[in-house]
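This part of the workshop introduces the protein records we will be handling. The question running through the whole workshop is how a given chain folds. To make this concrete, we reproduce a full record directly below:
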Amino acid sequence: MVKLTEHGGFLDDAYNVVSAGDDVRRIEEGRKKTMSYRILEKHNHSGNMKQLKLKFDCMVSPDNNYVNILQTAKASGLKKFPVPYVLSNCHNTLCSVGGTILEDDHAFGLSNAKKYGGIFLPPYRGVLHQYMREMMAGGEKMILGSDSHTRYGALGTMGIGEGGGELVKQLVGQTYDIAYPKVVGIKLMGKPKPGVGPMDVALALISKTFANGFSKNNVLEFVGPGIANLSMEFRMGIDVMTTESAALSSVWETDEKTEQYLAEHGRDREYKCLRTEEGAYYDKFIEIDMDNVEPMIALPFHPSHAMPIREFKTDMANILKEIEAEGNRIKGDHGEPFIIMNHMKEGEFYPDQALVSGCAGGLFENIVAVADILKSGSDGDIYGIRGNKLNLHVNPASLPVMEDLMTKGIGSELAVSGVTMRPCICGPCFGVTDAPADNQISIRHVTRNYPNREGSKPGQGQMAAVCLMDARSIAATVRNGGKLTGADELTDVEYRELKHTFNKKIYEKQVFDNYGHENPSEELVKGPNIADWPEMAPLKDHILLKVAGSYKGSVTTDELIPSGEASSYRSNPEKISGFTMISRDPDYVGRAKALRMIEAALNLDSKAGNITLGSIMISDQIGDGSSREQAASCQKVLGGFANLANEYSTKRYRSNLINWGILPLRTEEPLDIPVGTYLFISDIKEILSCGRNEVEILILNEKFDIYTEKDVINLDLSEIKSYVIKTIKATLDVLTEEERNILLAGCLINHYKGN
């Protein structure tokens, strides 16, 4: 089904892999024959293809982070949007907590679009990624988004999801700096069987490539004869999920279907024929035989925990016991134990809730397939809503998709089948709507199933879980009375090949496109919850760090700052910081704030010695998941100045740390450092200024503590070193000159203010 090749090689004109040998010159020439090289070269401003400085064609941000980005950009000297910048209102739309807080954010976004020349997508009109597919993506383009699922490769666009700091850099005329990435060739062969959908192919890929880091921070380049067997929406459904393999970006070969899609959306000039050239060199290869892909299920608590539904059924009891144990580890001692074994009845698995939604699930063809499966049932009542039967809810990806479903009668068919069609929002994907009840299991065609992402609150005793599946198998499960069923098990379904008709008038009448028409005199509309960033201190000569959180295993961005109701406060740095680690470690905020009461005044006082005081978080792995910059900025607001990990899960999280002035320390050594321990790094300012990467961390014994501000001011290096019980060798890994300057300045805002 999926075959990995660890070594590099060339592709011939029949997509066969040819050994590269050790001909360095030929390898370098082969790199230039990939689609990725062609696109990156077009956007590079460094003059050096080994160290890229990229500028993007356009950008996009959702309403759960664009306020912070705009505030940061304004503080950094923003005058106007230099490229088309879409402000989408699809994430926080239905968050009810906080009264008018969210509409205040939307009003702020619209006023920024007027002042700086932006594009404003109002609530309920579309999910950001679908709008970008429909209206912005095109051949050989690059798009930067402040959402991790910024992926438009099927249209020949390299999309990259990053934290807000990277978008700020683009807004003030700077570049996205990165070493030339490895490029992985993904050869698609065969054709999916009836009942197999894009999520099934995507989960097959993710299950083989995430845990081993095969795709991490690489560009995935889709090639091969199998592409022609996929519709554009099928390609998009696979493409958007490449984020979950930890890839940096993706791009696909294009064809007449790509050209037709763009033409149907009024953008025929955006088409570019993209092909890998004969002799193109790839650092690794993945082969996917789509003939053999089966309906898949990604079990809690990660998309990579995927296997064929058939395999899950053969060992269901043992697998569910493992999930239950992991859920109880996550929940800890909060409330009653997490229980899901009761979802297994007479050897079958029965979930409680079903959703098809957003940029991955809410596409026209997926929803039509749902209608086909439910319509083919022999007795409509078997999947009705009576009693404990499984309910299915659908969120189309955009208003044009919803309008076409209604025009073609699919909406009516779904309603008769007991399916509710909801607004075009991202809510079910990240837990601001449809949170399951305690101990419930939801099956969803969305992008993620991380712990607590569905909206549960284990710290308050409420715990649920999500399994990812394709819309087709979700519909098959609903039709089969709620019993887990792969869509390939159904033999009586007639799948229609209905063609989606895009109505451009919907966006023409409702989207505010003000690019190129900025009005500097426009006043920004700033509601009471929209707060400025607090003042942040630059680094002093040395740094003293107290461990505010120390964890085993992975710390995800959903744990660092949860989605759900916390999203309501994302425009207020102080309020949102109060939710940091709340689902995993409710005491983290209190510990960090206790230290911040001392450090804030001292760090900003140039007379208060030459030692920066701050908190640090420690874990094996930190940063898996979303691009949300609040995962780093909240640590900073609480006084965080460093993280120490064996691994940072993604490039975008590490970039977030740097842009908020948090040292991304990494070590190969085992980490068993308890909360409350003090760590000391001498000459950190010199290390950064001189371009060094290696750092020696001194661990101080439990007798060392700080009681008064005077103690900190008068600390002597020799006195501190007398408490040392152990040292750890760590590294900052590769930092660009600008990144070093940002860390020295204390954050990106300070850096740009100083320049």
In short: Residues 560 and 631 are 5 Å apart (CA to CA). The two ends are 53 Å apart (CA to CA). Residues 2-55+175-292 form a domain with the Aconitase; Domain 2 fold (CATH 3.40.1060.10). The first strand starts at residue 2 and ends at 5.
